[in-house]
Structures are given as structure tokens and as C-alpha cells.
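User: Predict structure, ligand NAP.
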Amino acid sequence: MKTVAITGVLGYSGRYVANEAVRRGWRVIGLTNSAGRLPNPARYELRPMPWSPGGESALRGVDVLVNTYWVRFSFNGAGHAAFSHSEAVDNTLALFRAAQQAGVQRVVHTSITKPDASSPLPYFSGKARLEQALAHSSLPHSILRPAVLFGDTPQESILVNNMAWSLRHLPCVGTFGSGTDYFLQPIHVQDFAELVINEIEQSEPHRVVQATGPETYSFRGLWHMLAQAVGVWRPILPMPHWVGYAAAKTLGSLMHDIMLTRDEVKGLTQNRLAVDEAPAGKRSLKQWAEQHAQQLGLAYQSELSRRR
Ligand SMILES: NC(=O)c1ccc[n+]([C@@H]2O[C@H](COP(=O)([O-])OP(=O)(O)OC[C@H]3O[C@@H](n4cnc5c(N)ncnc54)[C@H](OP(=O)(O)O)[C@@H]3O)[C@@H](O)[C@H]2O)c1
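Assistant: Predicted complex:
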């Protein structure tokens, strides 16, 4: 039986990837710094993230490495360990080196739609740097570029859930500018997991998969679809970007969370979460939202509380 090591196996997408790997006959080892903090109901063998010296021993006996590790934004506030994009880049480079030293045969790495080495946005430049590191290495690899993940439950789907929460709880919602000239292509996390497992079985040395979903929404269109799904009507007001960001920041503070960062607003409005290529995902966000309408947006989902 072949062995796949998965970072983030106790996290969001990593859990789905692990389930799918087991379903297709792979042995799973989880790489995590959250052993003991997060539940491990599937009882995967867990090993520490291999980025300290000698860390390659965590990859002993591993055929393929799947990497979902990343941090959504940089944060250095009270009540949480600090984390940053630059640290995530350094850790991931160490992870790739460890894979090489341990003789791992393939790496399947999660990136983002439109990574860009010249972008001032560290999410997109950091992801580009990691893609380049793989391209310049001798490690055979696949790179998956998702835009936004959703599913199985509203609790997991922070962005769409919190948009639905805003629709349920606020008298109106807003778009950054018109909201009609930048787009999102959300992919169901199970579609994403299936794409990852297709890639662990590939032999081509360098593959890139646009892991986008079958529907393309303008930001305004996404508000509209979610409002219809949960059965509320709210004015969707176009706002200057800074006003929309200030509103999201205030709401996030009230919820002791970071709802959306300034950089995320920039990434979204620069149309970085949609691509021209054909989608690889099949499951519809609209159908999913209709199926989960009773629960979607009932409770706010906090990003920061996941890291406590
Ligand atoms: N979620 C989305 O909508 C979305 C959209 C586009 C691209 N992506 C990409 O998809 C990949 C997986 O995303 P995901 O949402 O499934 O990730 P996730 O579960 O939130 O994070 C994956 C793992 O990264 C580590 N991690 C996350 N935040 C951390 C922090 N603040 N400090 C230290 N470690 C942290 C955790 O590892 P431990 O096990 O050690 O705790 C976690 O299990 C990422 O590369 C992301 O860039 C996601």
C-alpha cells in the first residue's frame, strides 16, 4: 500500500483529501502542529510538521506529500500565536526540502488562482514563490489553484456562511465598487479533494490544475444568489472600497474576528479569484446553498477561533 503524507489533515481541505485518499486505497500520515488541539476522529498516524532540522524523518516511508498548509493572513494580536505569510513561505520551503531529502516521489501542492511574484499582496506573491521553488526543484509535482472553497457544512464555509450571516442580520449589504467587474469561482471541497487524489497518482513531472468550480459569480451576483437561497431581501449597496472594508473590519471586531483583510479586498477586486480556463470542479454552489438554506448564515463563523 502506498503512503501519502498530508499537511493540514486535521484542518479543512486536508481532512477531505485524507478521506478521499483512504477511499482510494492509500495509507495516510498526517503532518500537523495541532496534535492534541484538534480532534483526530479518523485516528490518522500524526507526525510533526517537518520544518525543524532533521524534520525529514517525519517523511520517512512516504511516497507522496500533499501540502494544504498556509495561513490566510498575517496576524500578531492578543490571545493567539502570531503567524505570517513570510513564515508560511519559509516553512513551506523547508517542507519541500525535507520531501526532497526523504526521497518523496511526488508533491501535490495547494496554491491560489493567479499567483503573482510581482504582486504587492503577500498571499499571491508568496504562493508564486512556492510554485517557482517547485518548478526549479527536481521534485515531480502537481500544483492545484483553487479560488474559494465551500462545503460540506456551512460551519466550514467561512466566506459564504458569513456573507449569508450578514444578509440575515444586517439591514443592507455592500459591494466594493459596483461589485460587477470582479468574480469568484468557488469549488466544493470534495471536488478539490478528488482533484488532489487524481494528482497523487500522476507521473508527469510538472502539472498545474485550475481548481475552480463550475459557476462564476460577480461579487454582487454572489450576494444576490445567497439572498435568494436563504430567502431574505436586502439592498446591495455599491460602496467605495474603503467604506466596504471599514464595515467588514468593524463587523469582524464586533465578532472578535478578522472578517476580511484589506489585502483580501484588494485580491478580490483585482479579479484574482477567477480564471478563464475551464473549471475542474462539478458541484454547484447555488444547489449547495439551497440545500443548506436552513443553516446557512444562522451563526457567524470565526477564522481566529479556529487558531486558539
Ligand atoms: N479555504 C479557502 O477558501 C481557500 C481558497 C483558496 C486557496 N486555498 C488554499 O487551500 C489550502 C488549504 O486551505 P484550507 O482552508 O483547507 O486551510 P486550513 O485548514 O485553514 O489550513 C491548513 C493547515 O495549515 C495550518 N494553518 C492554517 N492556519 C494557520 C495558522 N494561522 N498558524 C499555523 N498554522 C496554520 C494548519 O496546520 P496544523 O495542522 O498544523 O494546525 C491547518 O490545518 C491553502 O493552501 C490555501 O491557501 C484555500
